[in-house]
Amino acid sequence: MGSVPALNSTKPTQIPTQEEDSQNPSTALLSFDTDSSDPSNPPRKHTTTIIFISLLLITCIALSAASAFAFLFFSSASSSSSTPAQKSSHLETTSRPLTKLNRSVVLLISSDGFRFGYQFKTPTPNIHRLIANGTEAETGLIPVFPTLTFPNHYSIVTGLYPAYHGIINNHFIDPLTGEFFTMGSHEPKWWLGEPLWETVANHGLRAATYFWPGSEVHKGSWNCPEEFCMFYNGSVPFEERVDKILSYFDLPSAEIPLFMTLYFEDPDHQGHQVGPDDPEITEAVAGIDRMIGRLINGLEKRGVFEDVNIIMVGDHGMVGTCDKKLIFLDDLASWIDIPAEWVLSYTPVLSIRPPHGVAPWSVVGKMNEGLRSGKVNNGKHLKLYLKEELPSRLHYSASDRIPPIIGLLEEGFKVEQKRTKRQECGGAHGYDNAVFSMRTIFIGHGPEFARGRKVPSFENVQIYNLVTSILKIQGAPNNGSLEFPRSVLLPSPK
Ligand SMILES: [Zn+2]
């Protein structure tokens, strides 16, 4: 509640600056007048005339610069405000009434690997339209650890940290059964917690998913109904996904799903191959913006754009990696042998489960000794922990699925078993969620979100309660705070 709408915050900072600029010369002009009233020094009169002329010139330049700035500021402000209601942003105190829909609808959109800041890489008029007329996490959305795709998408829809929702990595082994989880595993036993589509279905209401990790899994009253639950297929063109979502708004109003998900693989896909600073990313970001434009257009045509609560997020960020930033486990051989069979994942979350009879604490001790010795290439950029001793802010220990030994890598470093001739540069994510490059975006747009408002960064486990608050349904217990929605959403009218 402590934040100020963007229009409010820009006006006082920009306009006074212009006033200050134009005021300085005029105060100088006043002091000149006092100088000229001194007739006792004629040669000085000549100097003061020169000073007068130069100050007059400076004043003219400053005034024209100020008016140019003012023109630019106001013209850009008016071009980004596409609806007249935005002008009254600072007056908004309650959520806006629906004009066409009968009930609140939430459309949750994920653009995979949309690192915070990508929105400034290239003109993104549609994303910026949502930002200008909605509520934005000013310095981005904080992912959960590990900052990987499956753990984060499932945290967003359950409000739970991975240790509690069970998807502790993109791939892992259940130590009790020895079974493997992969991104294609749809058995309910893997997917703990209650995702939003299940919560909605449990209330007898309709949800629809156009891809989201976990959405194909049957849970509670959610049985992934045909037509309202798309089975993951990365080759479906983005346009087709958007158009399907739009088609739901052509249904009779009682049949429109109240909660929908829409997922795009970009720009994560490109980020892994070329890193975050390649022109390919810029192109992918522009492509996502076009999809947002297509969506806005379709909603406007149906007269429901201002009625739908759109929440646009990413799951994590991206950082550049390169062959110079590698650590090889085989380099630790003088301290301890780490066979590949012990290693469940290498990068960026090194996860090790030693066999029975090998004490995890002794493995951690020997590995850290080697890494700190100064004799292992890049060793100081990796630190091993018993999972119980990881920083508590990571919430990464309360699950049997999490292996007993976890290695935290510094941003941009990678672990491999042994040296190879492969030389590669690209991008990665999965690092500590305190690393800024892992941040992604949060934008909320619609009747429950104030226009032009900025809120501080928050963790994505808060989104579950945000959605249930908008839909006015009782959610399942989770790691988010019940007070949080009040700090982001507009209160209902009394
Ligand atoms: Zn991802």
UniProtKB/TrEMBL annotation:
Domain of life: Eukaryota
PANTHER family per record: BIS(5'-ADENOSYL)-TRIPHOSPHATASE, ECTONUCLEOTIDE PYROPHOSPHATASE/PHOSPHODIESTERASE
Transmembrane regions listed in the UniProt entry: 50-74
InterPro entries found in the cross-reference section: Alkaline_phosphatase_core_sf, Phosphodiest/P_Trfase
Listed Pfam families: Phosphodiest
Residue stretches in coiled coil: none
Alphabetical UniProt keywords: Membrane, Transmembrane, Transmembrane helix
Annotated SUPFAM superfamilies: Alkaline phosphatase-like
Disordered: region residues: 1-43
Name listed for the protein in its UniProt record: Uncharacterized protein
Composition skew (Polar residues), residue ranges: 1-39
